[in-house]
Amino acid sequence: MAQTIGVVGGGAWGTALATVAARAGHEVILWVREPEVAEAINSRHENSLFLPGVILPDSIRASTDPQTLGAADILLLVAPAQHMRGVLTILAPHLKSGAPVVVCAKGIEESTGALMSEVTSEILPSHPLAVLSGPTFAAEVARGQPAAVTLASKYQTVIARITEALGQPTFRPYGSTDVVGAEIGGAVKNVIAIAAGIVDGCELGENARAAVITRGMAEILRFAQSRGAERETMLGLCGLGDMILTCGSPQSRNMSLGRDLGRGRSLADILGERKSVAEGVYTARVLANIARERGIDMPIVQAVAAILHEGQSVQDAIEDLLQRPFRPELQG
Ligand SMILES: NC(=O)c1ccc[n+]([C@@H]2O[C@H](COP(=O)([O-])OP(=O)(O)OC[C@H]3O[C@@H](n4cnc5c(N)ncnc54)[C@H](O)[C@@H]3O)[C@@H](O)[C@H]2O)c1
Ligand SMILES: O=P(O)(O)OC[C@H](O)CO
């Protein structure tokens, strides 16, 4: 059944998800922050700022006006994690009562340590919530290339409704009831992808990168356990799947940022030339603090945070990791 899908956030991923909804036959309202993005989408059917080179379906209409979202039956929340609270606070009074909301951003709020589902439930308590997360580079999804995602909600009816609305042969949601688990993989893998990029930039070799990915997965599992997430969730699309994608390709903004750091560039220089968000930069610091406070062993996350935010050199951080005591592989 054709519905109206509202997409909050006109970056690359919001725009790609708008194409998914449009291909499924829905009317799509894309709420964007930048007037020039709205103008380009409505007049030329292209988001030339954040997703250049992809011609968008006519049924996507972009607007900067929060009131336009009042027509949406389902809302996809795709603002960057550090801006989600502010954006939802502005939009909340305009949304259709009880419309399901789907968290599609990947990150942890720096100022509170909250996951995006927690931020969303706080601001939109009467909207049933789902989380969509998995290995998905926006450009590939926007071009209609096949992808699969985890779609998690406490409510089977919400999973069924969103799956029916967005599911198609080239965009395959797999249902789950582990909401927190679905978020953790997507948020933490961005930090591990920066580490994998550093390994690449420093030319430490493929073996070292595989080691960082696997030991990074152990850190994800430890953090997930501390938050009551299910281990199996972390081995699914939103965990292992996204680690394989993001840590293995410089198409990832996080991985490529790490690679540039490994090649000796400064964080300020790298960020200064980008319009797009690398969520791992912000999640690294808050995650490292949470892990330290709760006694969760996350040495790779600590190393990335120290490089990004505490002025530790890449070489010293690598040396510290290599000098850690030997231990059993499966220890907690
Ligand atoms: N790009 C992808 O391939 C992809 C895939 C899956 C998930 N995600 C996640 O989606 C989320 C959005 O990323 P993206 O890739 O769509 O963004 P992007 O990097 O393409 O664009 C940046 C976005 O940030 C917004 N922004 C900048 N400053 C802002 C502010 N002060 N307040 C509110 N918004 C502001 C811009 O309007 C724009 O929508 C992130 O959490 C990201 O991890 C991205
Ligand atoms: O480009 P990145 O590093 O933000 O990764 C994009 C998606 O999260 C990959 O699933």
Provide a descriptive summary of the structure in words.
The longest helix has 23 residues, at 179-201. The protein contains 15 helices and 8 strands. By secondary structure, the protein is α/β, with parallel strands linked by helices. An 8-stranded mixed beta sheet has the order 3-2-1-4-5-6-7-8, sandwiched between helices. The chain binds nicotinamide-adenine-dinucleotide and SN-glycerol-3-phosphate. SN-glycerol-3-phosphate (G3P) binds at residues 106, 135-137, 190, 193, 242, 245-246, 252-254.
Order of helices and strands: EHEHEEHEHEHEHEHHHHHHHHH
Uncertain spans, ≥5 residues at pLDDT below 50?
A: none
Name the overall outline. Answer: globular
How would a textbook summarize the main sheet? 8 strands, mixed
Termini distance?
Answer: 47 Å
Number of helices: 15
Instruction: Work out the helicity level.
Output: 40-55%
Sequence-ordered SSE layout with sheet pairings:
Blueprint: E1 4-8, H1 12-23, E2 27-31, H2 35-44, E3 60-63, E4 74-77, H3 81-91, E5 101-103, H4 116-123, E6 129-133, H5 138-142, E7 147-153, H6 156-166, E8 171-176, H7 179-201, H8 206-226, H9 231-234, H10 237-248, H11 253-262, H12 267-272, H13 280-294, H14 299-309, H15 314-322
Parallel strand pairs: 1-2, 1-4, 2-3, 4-5, 5-6, 7-8
Antiparallel strand pairs: 6-7
Helix pairs in contact: 3-4, 7-8, 7-10, 7-11, 7-13, 7-14, 8-10, 13-14, 14-15
The site of SN-glycerol-3-phosphate has 12 residues, from helix 7, helix 10 and helix 11.
What's the short version?
With 332 residues, this protein is of the alpha/beta class.
Offer a few descriptive terms:
binds SN-glycerol-3-phosphate; 8 strands; 332 residues; binds nicotinamide-adenine-dinucleotide; single chain
